[in-house]
Amino acid sequence: MRLVLFDLDNTLVDRAEGFRRWAWEFCAEHRLTPDDAAWLASADHDGLAPRDDFFKAVRDRFALRETPAELLESYRERHPALIPAAPGVLTGLPRLRAAGWRMGVVTNGDAAQQLTTLLRTGVAGLVDGWAISEHEGVGKPDRRLFEIAAERCEAPLRDGWMVGDGEATDIAGGRAAGLRTVWVDRGRVWSGDEKAPDHVVADAAGAIELLLE
Questions:
Q1: Collapsing DSSP states into helix, strand and coil, what is residue 189?
Q2: N or C, which end of the chain is more exposed by having fewer CB within 10 Å?
Q3: Per residue, what are the HEC states of 99-162?
Q4: Is the pTM of this model over 0.90?
């Protein structure tokens, strides 16, 4: 039985595009400018900026009436609805299943938001299980989150694969869990801070084609 675990944000789904859509909506609602949308994207740091800090900075920069907590609540309700599945994922995952693969998602983040993303993009119905860091109380690169995802997929980690765009979380974490690794580079160059992945692809669709070879 072959197992592949996928990261969610910017791997199976285009979180960056979803954030861009949210930023444009936010700017339209608050009568802000395109330059302000660009600032939001920069301050977001590709989703790595702590949400509490991010929305405090947003409130201060634009002198908004809402509290950071209110802005965060609104964001968590709206952002997942704007995130599309990455190109080729909704057609590629069924091909992996037909080829005998067990598939799981292993992701860090807010449990409710990540689950909503899984459901609204259609990814949830195409995989065998998932593990979300907030819900499980442990996050990548900790081996335990990979183990939980594998258990949900009813497949052993041994000889499995990890596909993701994070060097430390997905690639180093996956390797430490005993998985072979595929890095989704998204146009970036490997930094060299971690041992190189087994394979490099441009996107999740490329990873799926690699696994089907």
A1: coil
A2: C
A3: CCEEEEEEECCCHHHHHHHHHHHCCHHHCCEEEEHHHHCCCCCCHHHHHHHHHHCCCCCCCCEE
A4: yes
